[in-house]
Design brief:
The protein is an alpha+beta fold and about 230 residues long. About 30% of the residues lie in helices and about 25% in strands. It has helices spanning about 35-40, 75-80, 95-100, 115-125, 165-180, 195, 205-215; strands at about 5, 25-30, 45, 55, 60-65, 85-90, 130-135, 140-150, 155-160, 185-190, 200-205. The strands form two sheets. Strands 6-7-8-9-10-5-11 form a seven-stranded mixed beta sheet, sandwiched between helices. Strand 8 and strand 9 (about 155-160) form a beta hairpin. The longest helix has 15 residues, at about 165-180. It is globular, with a radius of gyration of 17 Å. The chain starts with a strand and ends in an 11-residue tail after the last helix. The mean pLDDT is about 95.
Length: about 230
């Protein structure tokens, strides 16, 4: 399948069904607020290496988590019962993105969270769409994650941990918060053992895109989370 080249002057994406087998759909364009929001509403996200053109993806199948399917292992329960960490929202968005960029990852050299990505998602944060979760041990930031909220779907982007189980604590706290707010779906993008252990599963791309079309009926809850 071809990879479509996006003209920065035109705000559109090709049909996600035209993605390559690995999920790659298009290249080029920009990371403006308008294009990023259109991409996420369409089930598409950017992921590319520094120095490369912006690459846009829509994998099939898609890894997702339905809030009701969240699994909290027995080993994690004492962390909540004993309140070993504190969680905040939207207090340190830039710091969380930087920490995610610096997080070592198996099989990866460097990071896809480029300066351009930082600037694009910071604009979304300032517009009330991108959100961060911060996990604290005393006054030290020891874990967290960030993503995009549109309607009642949360699109997870990246997480980090500087203390054992800190990112898992933040993720579980986020899912519980989203469930309380009536969110119906969390997009995890790529399948990992870590996410599957928390209750994530994979669904066919058409099913995922249908869920996003249904999500269009929900208004966007713009604004920072307290």
């Amino acid at each position: 399948m071809p990879v479509f080249w996006l003209d920065p002057e035109y705000l559109l994406f090709p049909d996600p069904a035209l993605s390559n087998p690995d999920g790659l759909l298009a290249a080029g364009g920009d990371l403006s607020e308008e294009r990023l929001l259109l991409a996420y509403r369409s089930g598409i996200f950017p992921w590319y290496a520094p120095g490369d053109p912006i690459l846009w993806w829509c994998p099939d199948p898609r890894c997702v988590l339905f809030p009701n399917d969240l699994k909290v292992s027995k080993s994690m329960r004492p962390y909540f019962n004993q309140r070993k960490f504190k969680v905040t929202f939207d207090q340190c968005f830039t710091e969380v993105m930087l920490a995610c960029a610096q997080q070592p990852r198996d099989g990866q050299a460097g990071t896809w969270i480029t300066r351009e990505m930082m600037e694009g998602y910071t604009r979304l944060h300032e517009a009330g769409y991108a959100h961060s979760v911060e996990v604290w041990k005393d006054k030290e930031l020891v874990g967290g994650l960030y993503g995009i909220a549109i309607g009642k779907v949360f699109f997870g982007e990246s997480m980090f941990a500087r203390a054992s189980n800190a990112s898992k604590f933040g993720f579980i706290s986020l899912v519980r918060q989203l469930k309380a707010q009536g969110f119906t779906l969390i997009d995890c993008q790529q399948e990992t053992g870590h996410l599957l252990s928390l209750g994530a599963t994979t669904i066919p791309r058409p099913e995922f895109l249908q869920a996003l079309r249904a999500n269009d009926a929900h208004p966007d809850g713009e604004g920072k989370w307290g």
